[in-house]
C-alpha cells in the first residue's frame, strides 16, 4: 500500500495522539536503546527520544521515512520490512502503534522482534483487534458488490487479532505476557469529510483498478450508508477496537 504522508499527518493526527497512551505502557528510560516499528512520519518516535532514550525508527514506506528524516533529522530512521530486519545491537524495548494489523505474517513479525530484543527486553504495542472497523469495511464491500466489483472485496487488507489469538502466538515464540487488554475506542474523525478521508487513506486498496471518478462515487455511497452507524451529533467516528499488549522476552 502506498502511503500519503501529508494526508496521514494533516487528517489523521489522532493516530499519534492516541499512541501517546501506549507510550505510557512503554515508559521509556534515559539511555535505553528503543526501536519504533512502523514509525510513520516519526511523531511518536520523537516523543520517545524526549525521554533520553536512543531511539531508532523503521518503516516499510519510503514516503514515511523521507518525511520522518526531514522533520526529525536528529533521529535515525530506516526503510525496513518489519518481518525481516536486524541491527547490530539488540534493543531494550520495541514499540509499535497502529501498525501490526497491516502485516500479514504475524508469526514472522513477532519472531523477528523477539530476535532483535535483549533478554529481559519488552515489546509494547497497540493494534486493531478482532472486529475493528467492521462497519466501515462492510459498507465499502457492500458498495463494491452492488456496483459489480465483487473481486475487489476478496483482498485481505488487514489482520485483526483477538487478545486470545495474539497471546497464544506470543507465548509460543517465548514471550511472557505482562499485560494485555482489548477495548472499544470509537475514534472521532476530523471534519465533515472525516469518513471520506479515512476511506481514501486507509481503504484505498479495495478500489484498485477502478477509475478515479467511479471510486469517488462509490466512496460517497459508502459514506452515506455509514451515516446511520458512525455519525453522531454532527461528528464522524471510526469504530475502532484496540488490542494493547506488553510482553517480555524472559
Ligand atoms: C487501526 O488503527 O485500527 C486501523 C487504521 C487504519 C486501517 C485499519 C485499521
Can you walk me through this structure?
With 250 residues, the protein is of the alpha/beta class. The protein has a domain at 5-130 and 158-190 and 239-249: Vaccinia Virus protein VP39 (Rossmann fold, 3-Layer(aba) Sandwich), CATH 3.40.50.150. It has helices at residues 5-11, 14-26, 43-50, 62-71, 106-115, 134-146, 163-173, 194-202, 212-230; strands spanning 33-37, 54-59, 76-79, 91-97, 117-128, 175-184, 187-189, 231-232, 235-238, 241-249. The strands form two sheets. Strands 3-2-1-4-5-10-6 form a seven-stranded mixed sheet. It has a three-stranded antiparallel sheet with strand order 7-9-8. β8 (231-232) and β9 (235-238) form a beta hairpin. It is globular and about 55 Å long. The mean pLDDT is 95. It binds benzoic acid. Residues 98, 101, 128, 132-133, 158, 202, 240 line the site of benzoic acid.
- Sequence of secondary-structure elements: HHEHEHEEHEHHEEHHEEE
Q: How big a fraction of the residues is strand? A: 15-25%
Please give the number of β-strands: 10
Shape: globular
Major beta-sheet overview: 7 strands, mixed
Class of the domain at 5-130 and 158-190 and 239-249, according to the CATH hierarchy? Answer: Alpha Beta
Strand sequence of the main sheet, in spatial order? 3-2-1-4-5-10-6
Give the C-alpha Rg. Answer: 18 Å
What small ligands are held by the chains?
benzoic acid
Assign a percent range to the helix content. Answer: 40-55%
Structural class: alpha/beta
Mean pLDDT rating? 95
Q: Please count the helical segments.
A: 9
Low-pLDDT parts are none
